[in-house]
Specification:
alpha/beta, Arc Repressor Mutant, subunit A, 209 residues
Length: 209
């Protein structure tokens, strides 16, 4: 029986292309998601052997979704992204991702990445290994480390333009709890206006400009 995979990307055409590629190679696409939060829910329900997801997605980005999936289910995640910058690669590894594949190399690398990850190995697209090693040696910590997983989710939703009421609804918490998360984020980051939070989120790779 083929390896069961969940695909998560907010672009349906890309998901369709990846599905064709994987099924032609013998993998089983057990579910598809268009945002990070949906990917977490689908991973919980279908229990695939690996999740392949985009880094930049609405509601919850790929790194935060991968972290939640790993903590709750232990299922490994491969990030499929156009970003090779150090900050994204380092954040991904700190979140416990198992593979990091550049979209420009997906047709050549993704099948091998899934095979390696399901054997318990890590996988990096050729060309970014040196980047990771250099960054790890520098031991530069991300400013986002001061935030909890839930606070990082709230930060992304704020940066995407959601009001406190809207983000509370998306997260399934009360408005009071949502407002409390917002206040703690501002206090921890020493940023006291929404525009500043948006700039910070863009700089740290939570959303794209």
């Amino acid at each position: 029986m083929g390896v069961r995979v969940v695909l998560a990307d907010d672009h349906a055409m890309l998901r369709d292309g990846l599905k064709v590629l994987l099924e032609k190679t013998g993998f089983i696409v057990a579910g598809e998601a268009e945002n990070g939060a949906q990917a977490v829910e689908i991973a919980r329900s279908v229990r695939p052997q690996v999740v392949v997801m985009d880094l930049t997605m609405p509601v919850m980005n790929g790194i935060e979704a991968a972290s939640e999936i790993r903590q709750e289910t232990g299922i490994p995640t491969i990030l499929l992204t156009m970003h090779a910058e150090e900050q994204h690669v380092l954040r991904a590894f700190k979140a416990g991702i198992a593979g990091y594949v550049l979209k420009s190399k997906a047709s050549a690398d993704l099948v091998q990445a899934i095979q390696e990850v399901t054997r318990g190995n890590a996988y990096l697209s050729p060309g970014i290994s040196a980047t990771v090693i250099r960054e790890m040696l520098n031991k530069e910590s991300s400013g986002a480390d001061v935030l909890t997983l839930r606070e990082r989710q709230v930060l992304q939703l704020i940066a995407e333009g959601n009001t406190t009421k809207e983000l509370s609804h998306l997260l399934g918490v009360s408005v009071r709890t949502g407002d409390s998360h917002r206040s703690r984020i501002m206090e921890k980051l020493k940023i006291h206006e929404t525009a500043g939070l948006v700039r910070y989120a863009i700089r740290k790779g939570f959303i794209e400009a």
